[in-house]
Amino acid sequence: MSLQRHKGKQQVTVMGSLSICKGSRQVKVDKQEVNLTSLEFNLLTLLMKHSPELLPRASIIKQLFHGAEHKQQVINIHISNLRKKLQHYSSGLSIQAMRGQGYYLVVEKSPL
Predict the structure, then answer these.
(1) Distance between CA 30 and CA 43 in Å, rounded?
(2) Which CATH number is correct for 3-107, 1.10.10.10, 1.10.1780.10, 2.40.50.140, 1.10.20.10?
(3) Which end of the chain is more exposed for a tag (fewer CB within 10 A), N or C?
C-alpha cells in the first residue's frame, strides 16, 4: 500500500523508501534521484497505484499505450529495465510477475 502526501501543491506518493512526485515527475529512493524514462515513470506510477494488487498485462497495455496493439515482449522489456533500476538503488521494492497474468509491486521484507 502506498501513502500519498501533498508537498506544497504537488502530490507525493511514498512506498517503502521510494517516493514519486507526479507534478515534477521525480522519483527518489532515500532522497537519491532515480532517472527513469517517461514510460518507466508511468509504469511505476501505475504499479504503485494498484499495489499490492495484480495489474493484468492487458490493463498495462490499455493504460500506457492507450489500447494500441503491442506485443507482450514490449511490457517485459520495460518491466526488466525498471526492475534493474530499482535494484540498483536498493529501493526495497520488487516487481513480481504472475506468469501469463500480470505484475504487482511489493515492499521486500528486510532480513532480521
Answers:
(1) 20
(2) 1.10.10.10
(3) C
Which amino acid appears at position 15 of this protein?
Answer: M
β-sheet bridge partners, residue 3: 14
- pLDDT digits over 11-32, tens only? 888 888 889 998 899 999 988 9
Q: Give 7's pLDDT tier (boundaries 50, 70, 90).
A: low
List Cβ neighbours of 14 (8 Å cut-off, separation of 6 or more): 2, 3, 4, 5, 20
Task: Match 494488487 to its residue by C-alpha cell.
Answer: 53
* Cα gap 78→70, rounded to integer Å: 12
Instruction: Provide the whole-model pTM.
Output: 0.84
